[in-house]
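In this supplementary section we document a worked example of the pipeline. Step one takes a protein sequence of length 213 as its only input; no multiple sequence alignment statistics are reported here. Step two produces a three-dimensional model, which step three serialises into structure tokens for compact storage. The input and output of this example are shown verbatim.
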Amino acid sequence: MNRRDFLKGAGAAIVPAAIPGAIWASAPLSAASERALESSPEASPTIGPITAVVFDNRYADCQAFADALARRGARAFATNADAAQLWYGPLRAHVAQHPGRVAGLTTYADFSVSQACGRELGFAQLYEGEHDGRRSRAHLAHRLRTAADDREIVAAFAGASWAAQLADALSRLSAPDSTDAAIEAPRLAIVTTPRSMGHPGYLNSWLLGVVGA
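The serialised model returned by step three reads:
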């Protein structure tokens, strides 16, 4: 399945959280994920490490984000502008063998696909960032949403490479108290930085994971 076919089939089923600025909706665990949490001796109310990162290999910011997480042990998956093929192919197989969180820095379309496909696997939305340069050729406006403590994430934008530092901050993001807390009570922070070289105008960063009840 490719992204075009996925979006045509999903249509209005794509959750409201995929729309910038929308209120997040609850993401219940799948039956398979609940059984895995109950049967695993390591199961806990925490979220595991980032084991996969999805990125758009056309853009330097996305590459820097992926490289930073790859140095921490995550496997990087380039979308080639079609995230659906990843989620129904190599990424799904990797997540099945290496449970953990999945992070991404992608276009809005690939973020939407990743969010919907992640829900099929029982993933909740833990963090979302909008990196918007459509109103300025010189600056990016970063709108950041998370239910966890966002101070370290905000601090990531103080350095020269916001994408790499954001990736490092997300790798240390603590688990929210519950799935409901992650979805229904997000904090919102807005940060402005100089516009990155080659930034396409709008990108989404995101983090998906299974959260214990």
